[in-house]
Design goal:
189 residues; mainly alpha; two-stranded antiparallel ribbon; 6 helices; 5% strand; DUF357; DUF357 domain-containing protein; AF1782-like_sf
């Protein structure tokens, strides 16, 4: 899939997403924050794309999709889930290769550290505990997929998985499912 096509798909999903809980509640405020993140990354991704920055465009779309999918899974948003990042088949220009390598390595490092910098807050006997587990499983799965893809020297698709997993984790932290035990700067709080 081309990055532009992925971005258009994400923008369509973003436009269809709505806050699924009463907006005048704490849950509604959280849902509104999640939807704002989803919308901002749809916009930012297209700005990057129009400027020719395919690397930041792809990362923005995948990260935002992580927020959208996590927000829907948690019940804060109503919309359609993506089932993970699509495979990008577009060739990244040589002029962006260094940028792609740097960003992919940085996101791999940051997601690894962020995954180690949280503690699950809901009690194991509550309904929110399995939701927190789902976010941790998705995050670790996307990190592992990104690492596998990176071994094949496919940096753009590795970055997509790192970014998508990071969106899930950030959404979980923002939703109050995790406490931060490490570097707070790794999270959107």
């Amino acid at each position: 899939m081309l990055i532009e096509t992925y971005g258009e798909k994400y923008q369509t999903a973003t436009a269809a997403a709505v806050v699924a809980v009463p907006t005048d509640t704490a849950l509604g405020s959280t849902g509104a924050e999640i939807l704002e993140m989803v919308s901002c990354y749809a916009y930012d991704g297209m700005v990057f794309y129009r400027k020719g920055d395919l690397v930041n465009a792809a990362a923005s779309f995948a990260y935002g999709y992580g927020w959208l999918d996590a927000g829907c899974m948690l019940g804060f948003l109503s919309g359609t889930n993506s089932a993970g990042p699509d495979t990008i088949t577009e060739n990244i220009p040589e002029t962006l290769r260094e940028h792609l390598s740097e960003k992919t390595e940085r996101y791999q490092r940051m997601l690894t550290e962020a995954s180690r910098s949280i503690v699950t807050l809901p009690d194991a006997e509550t309904p929110m505990y399995p939701a927190a587990e789902k976010i941790q499983i998705t995050t670790s799965t996307e990190l592992a997929r990104g690492n596998e893809i990176l071994l094949k020297h496919d940096e753009i698709n590795a970055l997509m998985h790192f970014s998508y997993g990071y969106g899930w984790l950030d959404c979980g932290v923002r939703s109050g499912l995790f406490g931060i035990t490490g570097d707070r700067h790794l999270f959107t709080i």
